[in-house]
């Protein structure tokens, strides 16, 4: 069962050229994701703006975005907070058809205007099992599951079949992180470090994280649509290495027992 992966764009100048040399990985990519320009919407990774190669102006951002689109791989723009309908329209006019967002009313409005958009509900909603079973989320094409589900396989199996789900298998955050909003929407490097430190204090071993090794994804495959790989702060080489490792599933590696992926809260 071949699954596809959302791949992060790190704004590195070598990203496109190195990915083009790995075209055997193209069939495994569902989309390449990147944040909207910093003045258009809040991003969940404060540090991306501090990267040396992050665009210094909106015009430069557009140039980089158009160069990325020339790869012929679908592009997803992240707009989790602060983006208006008009802002989303500008990106639609640029040719973007996939958006990750966290505003149900805006999602409905986008769907009413454009039947060809694909909308993903961001992990920043941090929906619980009960909310996924009771809320109307039909305005979204896909839903990114919170870290908790990576250690609750039985809960994933029991989720409503009417939605398509995305998991983030290479996430090394605590599976039950309570500081996610501070981490995702930090207003400063200090705030981001504080949230990271609080999260990491709960991690004593890999089992405490939301990380799922590539060879163990087969437990989740029947119940999820696709996967989303982190991290936009990785180097291009590491991003492509992660994609390769997950795409090919660490062939030959020994799987863990299934109960590893079901823990007590």
Structure commentary:
This protein has 265 residues and is an alpha/beta fold. The chain is 29% helix and 12% strand. It has helices spanning 15-20, 58-69, 85-93, 104-113, 129-134, 153-157, 180-184, 189-200, 236-248; strands at 5-8, 29-35, 75-79, 98-101, 118-121, 142-144, 165-167, 226-228. The protein has an eight-stranded parallel beta barrel with strand order 1-2-3-4-5-6-7-8. Strand 6 (142-144), helix 6 and strand 7 (165-167) form a beta-alpha-beta unit. It is globular. The protein starts with a strand and ends in a 17-residue tail after the last helix. The model has no long low-confidence stretch (mean pLDDT 92).
Largest sheet: 8 strands, parallel, barrel
What global shape is seen?
globular
Structural class by SSE content: alpha/beta
Average pLDDT, rounded to a whole number, is 92
Give the helix level as a range of percent: 25-40%
Low-pLDDT segments, ≥5 res: none
Q: Treating each run of at least 4 consecutive H or I residues as one helix, how many helices?
A: 9
Ends apart, CA distance between termini: 30 Å
Strand content: 5-15%
Looking across the biggest beta sheet, what order are the strands in? 1-2-3-4-5-6-7-8
Q: Whole-number radius of gyration?
A: 18 Å
Number of strands: 8
Order of secondary-structure elements? EHEHEHEHEHEHEHHEH
